[in-house]
Amino acid sequence: MRNLTMCLATAMAVLGAQQAQAACTIAAPSSPSTAAFGTLQLPIDADGNGSPDTVSGSRLQTYSSQYFERQGGDRIVMRVPTGSSATTPNSKYPRSELKEGRTWNVNEGCAGLAARVNIYDLPDSGDIVIGQIHQEATTPRPPVELHYTNGTIHADVMKQQTTEAGSPRTRLTIATGIPTHQAFSYSMTLAPGGLLTVTVNGKSQSTYLDGSFDAAKLYFKAGNYTQDTNGGSSVGFEALGVKHG
Predict the structure, then answer these.
(1) Predicted structure pTM score
(2) Contact 232/223 with Cβ under 8 angstroms?
(3) Do 200 and 191 form a contact (C-beta atoms < 8 A)?
(4) Most buried residue, 19, 30, 115, 181, by most Cβ within 10 Å?
(5) How far apart (Å, rounded) are the C-alpha atoms in residues 25 and 187?
(6) pLDDT digit of tens for each residue in the chain (245 aa)?
């Protein structure tokens, strides 16, 4: 009887997860949009104040430069040139990366980020973070980082809420053998209850975000966060969008 009860509980949990996943989906739009994003961090410190330059507000919606180049309405190319050294206080790596313009809670409803991406140039490390679920905190650590590493795409998920660097993570490997100069799609969705699903070219992996993040103020990031102190990467976004609810 006990085994039957355990089996039923497991089956109900699996069904609940499947229903949550089915209800929380997002497809990449037909073109890249910055409407859901509030800030762009650049890999330069042009004013010499010791912090990376940023672009925000209404200026972001039309901004274009060598670091964030709008190529018509079909593509945005985010570049981190070799030799870039402007970083945030909690990172040693430069980036050209968008930050969502709002924060949200795990249990507010379905949250999703979707993109179609083309990796043009890799840094010497071969590793770029192309999407994140981040959080506001005194010393922020991203609960989820989506990496492109020499053709392999994997998500690193924090096992629990902490402000310490090098915290334990679960790794989900979603796709392998994707070369540079070949477009691929990805999405990250977080459903109420913490079900995280990461999909690349239609192939998905899922896990649960730990309950210690339930009260966290979360937001999406997308771009070219090169995992190399010397920069040297470029990423094209042919589609980009965010969904809530």
Answers:
(1) 0.90
(2) no
(3) no
(4) 115
(5) 8
(6) 555 544 443 333 334 444 455 679 999 899 999 999 999 999 999 988 889 999 999 999 999 999 999 998 899 999 999 999 899 888 999 999 999 999 999 999 999 999 999 999 999 999 999 999 999 987 778 999 999 999 999 999 999 988 777 778 999 999 999 999 999 999 999 999 999 999 999 999 999 999 999 999 999 999 999 999 999 999 999 999 999 99
